[in-house]
Design brief:
homodimer, alpha+beta, Arc Repressor Mutant, subunit A, Alpha-Beta Plaits, four-stranded antiparallel beta sheet, 38% helix, DNA-binding
DNA sequence: GTTGAAAGGTTATTACG
DNA sequence: CGTAATAACCTTTCAAC
């Protein structure tokens, strides 16, 4: 996939607002709407744009707690690692999941309604799982999310 | 803000695809397009929908490295903490930033083109900052991002 | 005040030069 | 690649509840 500055500009615009109109984008890169359309098509098909999604406010949805949890598994066996990954991926309270180089280590971002609800999560997700050797929780106080800077 | 099951369904749809048409949403909740429109309006105005954005593929944009970095500051002075937060928020390579309860501790998700580029980032961001007492880097091997499960 | 059906306007898409 | 025609969509109005 070959990309030029115009493509990057489109990505930057869409990253800030997925509802930016094609006309507006066309104006930004001084091109026709058809050109923008074709660019978007290939950006989507090539997977550079993974998805266009609504970002929701967790607090306003009743998830007052965010936690960063680092997890260590009992053994570094691939099937166990994959099983754990799968479990995390499917869980509605796990919003992000990172697999760390080196050991059987993971970092996950978990949301919960309150502390009691987080407790319940740990029982369900960690204590009930024989593969989990240990886990360490850090409660998040505030979050800032930046957007990816593109080399325009 | 009062929300019912239909609102949650709309959020769930938009979380998966921000380009879902109003007609399609109306079909899902068995309502008119005008009703969906009114619901979306208040969901946006109340901030439950924070933004609608394109999610980009970092690897395909040339950012091959993702790192989780935990950072400890020299002192817990509020102005220093805020200055650091601000710096992180504005930095194009810092995609996520979490402020941890307790001490002057942070966790950030950082992207870089390659290891050398990450080195440069650490020099710029950590070594050049007298407030940073220490930082610890974990390189991310794989990432899974789940969506928030809504109680439908 | 809230709702849904339908009209009217805007935007996205496709076909063609 | 851009223009223009087509199609899809969004928005507003308005009447009924």
């Amino acid at each position: 996939m070959i990309m030029d500055i115009s493509d990057l500009k489109l990505l930057s615009l869409l990253q800030q607002n997925a509802k930016t109109s094609i006309q507006e984008m066309a104006a930004h890169i001084s091109a026709s709407t058809a050109s923008v359309q074709r660019r978007l098509k290939s950006l989507r098909e090539s997977g550079v744009i993974k998805k266009e999604a609504a970002i929701l406010d967790q607090k306003k949805l009743g998830f007052g707690i965010t936690a960063i949890v680092s997890v260590e598994l009992e053994r570094d066996r691939l099937d166990q690692i994959n099983a754990f990954k799968q479990k995390a991926k499917q869980d509605g309270q796990v919003t992000n999941f990172y697999c760390i180089a080196g050991d059987a280590d993971f970092v996950m971002i978990v949301v919960a309604k309150d502390i009691a609800d987080y407790e319940k999560f740990t029982h369900r997700f960690f204590f009930a799982d024989k593969n989990v050797r240990k886990f360490r929780t850090s409660i998040v106080v505030s979050t800032e999310k930046a957007t990816l800077d593109l080399p325009l």
